[in-house]
């Protein structure tokens, strides 16, 4: 099966870029902005024929240089997208996914505010989703990480 990572990564980058927003979206802040980003992203998935089911929605407020961890249960043999967005005060947000043994199984630590991690054929069980705020101009920054199962 051909990877859709370039399609999803391009969609996330375009949607998270302020130049991709219409004027009303530019005025949104905080949770309203995060929700709008995900609505546009999910619409892009559908338009590209990508079928997904949301399995988790992790929300945090994180200080510059800080991190938060959440445990999410994933089903064996399935593939997932882990996609993060952050508010208007954030310029660098990272996501690291670890297994129950503390091993990193996926990460996006690029210098951007829209991390995307693809997990394929995972072992069933709990996974640590670490949200890392690498650069927040006005503390705290609001973040959201959604996990989608690829159907």
Structure commentary:
Helix 1 runs antiparallel to helix 3. The protein is globular. It is α+β, with helices and mostly antiparallel strands. The protein has a single domain (5-150), classed as Jelly Rolls, CATH 2.60.120. It has helices at residues 5-16, 23-26, 30-47, and strands at 52-62, 67-74, 80-86, 90-98, 104-108, 116-119, 125-136, 141-150. The longest helix has 18 residues, at 30-47. The chain has a four-stranded antiparallel beta sheet. A four-stranded antiparallel beta sheet has the order 2-7-4-5, with no helix packed on it. Mean pLDDT is 86; it is low at 17-24. It has three helices and eight strands. Helix content is 23%, strand content 44%. 30% of the residues are buried.
Furnish the topology, listing elements before pairings.
Blueprint: H1 5-16, H2 23-26, H3 30-47, E1 52-62, E2 67-74, E3 80-86, E4 90-98, E5 104-108, E6 116-119, E7 125-136, E8 141-150
Antiparallel strand pairs: 1-8, 2-7, 3-6, 3-8, 4-5, 4-7
Helix pairs in contact: 1-3
List its traits.
151 residues; alpha+beta; Jelly Rolls; four-stranded antiparallel β-sheet; 8 strands
Summarize the model shown.
The chain has helices spanning 5-16, 23-26, 30-47, and strands at 52-62, 67-74, 80-86, 90-98, 104-108, 116-119, 125-136, 141-150. With 151 residues, the protein is of the alpha+beta class.
* Silhouette: globular
Give the tally of β-strands: 8
The total domain count is 1
CA radius of gyration is 15 Å
CATH top level label: Mainly Beta
The strand line-up of the biggest sheet is 1-8-3-6
Q: What is the element string, with H for helices and E for strands?
A: HHHEEEEEEEE
CATH domain fold name: Jelly Rolls
Catalogue the unreliable spans.
17-24
Number of alpha- plus pi-helical segments: 3
Assess the beta-strand content as a share of residues.
35-45%
Mean pLDDT score = 86
Major sheet characteristics: 4 strands, antiparallel
Tell me the helix content: 10-25%
Distance between the termini: 13 Å
CATH architecture: Sandwich
Structural class: alpha+beta
């Amino acid at each position: 099966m051909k990877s859709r990572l370039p399609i999803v990564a391009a969609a996330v980058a375009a949607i998270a870029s302020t130049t991709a927003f219409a004027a009303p979206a530019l005025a949104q802040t905080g949770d309203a902005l995060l929700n709008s980003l995900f609505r546009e992203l999910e619409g892009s998935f559908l338009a590209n024929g990508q079928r997904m089911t949301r399995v988790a929605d992790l929300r945090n407020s994180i200080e510059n240089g800080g991190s938060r961890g959440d445990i999410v249960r994933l089903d064996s043999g399935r593939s997932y997208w882990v996609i993060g967005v952050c508010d208007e005060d954030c310029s660098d947000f990272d996501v690291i996914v670890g297994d129950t043994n503390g091993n990193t199984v996926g990460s996006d630590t690029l210098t951007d505010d829209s991390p995307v991690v693809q997990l394929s054929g995972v072992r069933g069980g709990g996974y640590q989703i670490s949200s890392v705020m690498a650069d927040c101009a006005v503390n705290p920054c609001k973040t959201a990480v959604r996990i989608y199962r690829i159907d």
